[in-house]
């Protein structure tokens, strides 16, 4: 298990690696994916709630990125571009007939961490994870991108393909929803 | 509504555990990527290449215009020859000169120079970079780095692109990375011959210049030769506005009619610069110019994008539907290439968000270095939602605002088309019928785009 690190928006892959990946160098592309995978995996997992769905969506997104990278102009951050592809892949997964929009987090075993009361820490994380599932995917994505992964409103708007104002309103609803579900705790 | 980040919530969210991938994830991914390099999964109606030699392989207009437009010129604009503002008719006359120059040129050669913060941010280049280039009306191109170790060649007659560059995954003096791409489409929105510098950075600007209405014109000079300077407004990139200009200036050599210099400006200050030096028009080029040999023993990464050339009357049988073919194209254009890709293929659209392109027909019409592309693909793809966006969208932070036009004739009668003409993209329109997604693109005017679209007919 890993915890999601806010790597995506603040650190970029060296341009020459991106350039080689763009020309079809699979090793270079693998390096790009390894760099962004922790953040992308966290986003996908929290949107889909299931490890297999997460892996399916990420494989689809990574293949799309590999095929689309030759046309990537580099005028935007590569991370932003990748997050958008992954987000779209997750939405497609959620829209597939027969898929449940919210799936219990069965695969995750929350570890207690270095907190004074391990039992309480686990309970809090489980509560927060559960509260997230009760948000609409669009609101969940907003709070994950901005609060958890550190994207600014502008970049989050590009990833979600909505105006910045919509990002702000979704964040507001998401935070209020989390507070409501958690009964005034972590949020 | 205030905009802030909830750090405490963020920390709590980051502390949530995320499962690792299943053990076979990366092995499966590598297999999928290898399949992607060979492009097409088995398709029941797949056909092999029918013929080649008599059909000119179209060079993407982006590339052709890009090379011509690769002459971006900038720095020191205010110190140039005395500037006189011209009325509108002069702009149209200059645009016509550029069209004639591009439509009549058989070859273009020279040295391409690029510099600026945008290039540094995108490619990591420090300072000015220089390449030698060659281009033909048949669609061949060659790009040889003079400051970077880079070598790309596209042989239009064989439809093969080869490149030889240092590998990014090996630092220092590692082996060269060789790639060969076959089965290329004539051009966008499908995978065709590509060089990011020429295609993405230069060609679209010139085409957009040609399609722009009322660009501002001033007399100027470039390297001691009389030139015209035309100014085109630009949309600012929403993600990296600090590296995005609000205006483009293009210098056109008066004698040849070839664009020789492009400058991207922001608040009057130069950003990126692109220019051509040692330009030669219609210089004879031997065929070996576009042949790139790999050193013996080099491991070559081979990709097949899945497009096959066929005769026009074979296209319908190849894809299982009647493709749309224009009954009218601007004077001088001729059908140069018909390419089909049966079965599922590459995604298109903003960040590859469209359903997989399925059963594609791509028609290339050429006139000198100019090209018009007309493509059709199935709209309804099993397993994918019917949710299409512009297959030729600009993307990467640029917000497209297309003009919506109701077409009145032909196979697209009563269909709403989205027309987009902006500097950073190829002028194009796209539309959907009940069964197909259609694109028309090229360095032509808005009126010509619409007329081509309204002349489309189903060709069984």
> What's the order of the H and E elements of chain A?
EHHHHHHHH
Q: Provide the CATH top-level class of the largest domain in chain A.
A: Mainly Alpha
Number of domains of chain B: 2
What distance separates the N and C termini of chain B? 57 Å
Q: What CATH architecture label of the largest domain in chain B applies? A: Clam
The CATH topology of the largest domain in chain B is outer membrane lipoprotein receptor (LolB), chain A
Count of DSSP-assigned helices of chain B:
8
Whole-number mean pLDDT of chain A: 79
Label the CATH architecture of the largest domain in chain A.
Orthogonal Bundle
Percent range for helical residues of chain B? 10-25%
- What does the radius of gyration of chain B come to? 23 Å
Largest sheet of chain A: none
Instruction: Report the principal-axis shape of chain A.
Output: globular
Low-pLDDT stretches of chain B: 40-89
CATH homology superfamily name of the largest domain in chain B: Lipoprotein localisation LolA/LolB/LppX
Termini separation of chain A comes to 23 Å
Strand order of the largest sheet of chain B: 8-9-10-11-12-2-3-4-5-6-7-13
Task: Describe what you observe in this structure.
The complex is a heterodimer of chains A (187) and B (460). With 187 residues, chain A is an all-alpha fold. Chain A folds into two domains: 10-100, Rna Polymerase Sigma Factor, Chain: A, CATH 1.10.1740.10; 112-187, Winged helix-like DNA-binding domain superfamily/Winged helix DNA-binding domain (Arc Repressor Mutant, subunit A). In chain A, 65% of the residues lie in helices and 1% in strands. Chain A has eight helices and one strand, in the order E-H-H-H-H-H-H-H-H. Chain A has helices at 15-22, 26-48, 51-68, 78-95, 118-133, 137-148, 153-160, 164-182; one strand at 2-3. In chain A, helix 2 (26-48) packs antiparallel against helix 3 (51-68), helix 4 (78-95) crosses helix 7 and helix 6 crosses helix 8 (164-182). The two termini of chain A are 23 Å apart. Chain B is α+β, with helices and mostly antiparallel strands and 460 residues long. Chain B folds into two domains: 44-54 and 306-458, Phosphorylase Kinase, domain 1, CATH 3.30.200; 61-281, Clam (outer membrane lipoprotein receptor (LolB), chain A), CATH 2.50.20.10. Chain B contains eight helices and 23 strands. The longest helix of chain B is centred in the N-terminal third of the chain and has 17 residues, at 88-104. Chain B is globular, with a radius of gyration of 23 Å. Chains A and B meet through strand 1, helix 1, helix 2, helix 3 and helix 4 of A and helix 1, strand 1, helix 2, helix 5 and strand 6 of B.
């Amino acid at each position: 298990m890993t915890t999601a690190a806010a790597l995506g928006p603040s650190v970029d892959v060296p341009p020459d690696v991106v350039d080689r990946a763009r020309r079809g160098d699979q090793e270079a592309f693998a390096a790009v994916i390894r760099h962004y995978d922790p953040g992308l995996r966290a986003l996908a997992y929290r949107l889909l709630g299931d490890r297999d769905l997460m892996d399916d969506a990420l494989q689809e997104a990574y293949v799309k990125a590999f095929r689309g990278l030759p046309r990537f102009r580099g005028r935007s951050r590569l991370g932003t571009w990748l997050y958008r592809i992954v987000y779209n892949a997750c939405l497609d997964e959620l829209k597939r007939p027969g898929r449940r929009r919210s799936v219990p987090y069965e695969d995750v075993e929350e570890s207690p961490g270095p907190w004074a009361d391990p039992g309480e820490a686990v309970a809090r994380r489980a509560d927060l994870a559960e509260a997230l599932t009760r948000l609409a995917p669009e609101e969940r994505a907003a709070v994950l991108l901005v609060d958890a992964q550190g994207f600014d409103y502008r970049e989050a708007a590009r990833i979600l393909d909505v105006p910045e104002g919509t990002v702000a309103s979704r964040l507001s609803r998401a935070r209020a929803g989390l507070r409501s579900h958690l009964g005034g705790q972590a949020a | 509504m205030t905009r802030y980040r909830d750090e405490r919530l963020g920390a709590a969210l980051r502390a949530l555990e995320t499962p690792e991938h299943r053990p076979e994830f990366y092995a499966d991914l590598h297999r999928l990527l290898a399949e992607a390099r060979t492009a097409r999964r088995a398709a029941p109606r797949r056909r092999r290449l029918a013929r080649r030699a008599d059909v000119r392989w179209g060079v993407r207009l982006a590339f052709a215009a890009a090379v011509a437009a690769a002459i971006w010129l900038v720095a020191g604009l205010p110190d140039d020859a005395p500037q006189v503002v011209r009325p509108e008719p002069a702009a149209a006359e200059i645009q016509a000169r550029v069209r004639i120059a591009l439509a009549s040129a058989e070859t273009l050669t020279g040295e391409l120079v690029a510099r600026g913060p945008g290039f540094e941010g995108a490619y990591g280049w420090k300072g000015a970079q220089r390449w030698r280039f060659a281009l033909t009306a048949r669609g061949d191109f060659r790009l040889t780095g003079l400051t970077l170790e880079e070598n790309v060649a596209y042989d239009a007659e064989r439809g093969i692109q080869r490149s030889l560059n240092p590998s990014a995954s090996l630092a220092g003096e590692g082996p060269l990375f060789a790639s060969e791409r076959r089965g290329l489409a004539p051009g966008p929105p499908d995978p065709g011959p590509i060089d990011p510098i020429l295609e993405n950075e230069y060609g679209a600007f010139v085409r957009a210049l040609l399609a722009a209405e009322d660009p501002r014109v001033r007399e100027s000079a470039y390297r001691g030769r009389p030139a015209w300077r035309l100014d085109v407004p630009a949309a600012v990139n929403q993600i990296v506005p600090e590296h995005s200009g609000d205006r483009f200036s293009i210098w056109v050599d008066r004698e040849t009619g070839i664009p020789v210099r492009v400058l991207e400006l922001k608040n009057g200050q130069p950003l990126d610069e692109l220019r051509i030096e040692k330009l030669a028009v219609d210089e004879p080029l031997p065929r070996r110019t576009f042949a790139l040999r790999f050193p013996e023993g080099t491991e070559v990464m081979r990709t097949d994008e899945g497009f096959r050339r066929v005769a026009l009357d074979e296209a319908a049988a190849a894809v299982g539907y009647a493709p749309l073919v224009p009954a009218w194209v601007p004077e001088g254009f001729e059908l140069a290439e018909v390419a089909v890709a049966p079965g599922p293929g590459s995604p298109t659209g903003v960040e590859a968000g469209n359903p997989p392109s399925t059963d594609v027909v791509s028609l290339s019409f050429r006139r000198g270095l100019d090209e018009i592309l007309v493509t059709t693909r199935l709209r309804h793809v099993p397993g994918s939602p019917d949710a299409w966006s512009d297959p030729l969208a600009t993307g990467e932070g640029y917000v497209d605002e297309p003009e919506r036009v109701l077409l009145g004739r032909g196979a697209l009668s009563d269909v709403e088309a989205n027309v987009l003409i902006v500097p950073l993209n190829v002028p194009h329109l796209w539309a959907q019928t009940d069964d197909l997604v259609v694109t028309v693109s090229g360095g032509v005017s808005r009126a010509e785009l619409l007329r081509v679209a309204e002349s489309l007919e189903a060709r069984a």
